[in-house]
UniProtKB/TrEMBL annotation:
Pfam families: Peptidase_C26 (PF07722). GO terms for biological process: polyamine catabolic process. The keyword Hydrolase applies. Keywords: Hydrolase. The keyword Hydrolase applies. GO terms for cellular component: cytosol. GO terms for molecular function: gamma-glutamyl-gamma-aminobutyrate hydrolase activity. This is Gamma-glutamyl-gamma-aminobutyrate hydrolase family protein. PROSITE patterns: GATASE_TYPE_1 (PS51273). Signal peptide: none annotated. The lineage of its organism: Bacteria, Bacillati, Bacillota, Bacilli, Bacillales. It comes from Listeria aquatica.
Length: 246
């Protein structure tokens, strides 16, 4: 039986309005297709009240945290700065509850872009609200102006990391973000950085479950990049180890 992968839902913004009826629709189809290709059964978990997290995580074998809008800065002790983009506190609270429950149950987590940042905040870390606040003299282009299916800048991956088991230790990845991890949560360890020193991946440290976060978007690259597909395969294979009996 295929492992069921819970995929976090997204909210559609139009100015200050939120179209609640489209939460599921606006989970990118590429996440769904990537999980299907490597043998998983995707189940989109829409934004909901945090109390629903326990029931939702009881239905799935692993959690895929997706990309999207910015994260509520008050969650890491800051007020919103002028450069921050759209953020939606109900989504943040919903997904933090999912992360907490997944970790409590020991279920694997793959976190992508915003997803990685959200996991870091959920575990006590913080973010740069915008690249303009990063103290790096030669900050690379992290919001790329090239086809999103193609790599943009290079990252260096720790050779002993889980990520290195499916990726080259130097890899060119795509990049579609303007926020960055600042303070790393104690339960996470950094496993790759871009050439300008920005954090590009993290893995769980003494968390009791498999946890891997990447700052780029492998769901946009997997059809042309075997290593990106291998990352999803690694995750789905991990979920099979403690698959829910159905």
């Amino acid at each position: 039986m295929k492992p069921v992968i819970g995929i976090t839902g997204n909210a559609l913004f139009k100015g200050a309005d939120i179209f609640y009826g489209h939460r599921v629709t606006y989970t990118q189809q590429r996440y769904v297709e990537a999980i299907q290709k490597v043998g998983g059964l995707p189940l989109v978990i829409p934004i909901s009240d945090p109390e629903s997290a326990k029931q939702a995580m009881g239905m799935v074998d692993g959690l895929l945290m997706t990309g999207g809008q910015d994260i509520t800065p008050q969650l890491y002790g800051e007020e919103p700065l002028p450069e921050i983009g759209n953020y939606f506190p109900p989504r943040d609270q919903s997904e933090i509850a999912l992360v907490d429950e997944a970790m409590h149950l020991g279920k694997p987590i793959l976190a992508i872009c915003r997803g990685m940042q959200l996991v870091n905040v959920a575990l006590g870390g913080s973010l740069y609200q915008d690249g303009s606040h990063v103290k790096a003299p030669d900050l690379l282009q992290h919001l790329q102006n090239v086809d999103e299916q193609l790599g943009s800048h290079t990252i260096d991956i720790h050779p002993e990391s889980m990520l290195a088991s499916v990726h080259s230790v130097e890899k060119r990845v795509n990049s579609l973000h303007h926020q960055y991890i600042k303070r790393v949560a104690e339960k996470l360890e950094v496993t790759s950085r871009s050439k300008d020193g920005m954090i590009e991946s993290v893995e769980g440290k003494n968390t009791g479950n498999w946890l891997l976060g990447v700052q780029w978007h492998p769901e946009l690259m997997y059809s042309k990049d075997p290593e990106s597909e291998a990352l999803f395969f690694l995750f789905v294979e991990e979920t099979k180890k403690n698959q829910v009996k159905r």
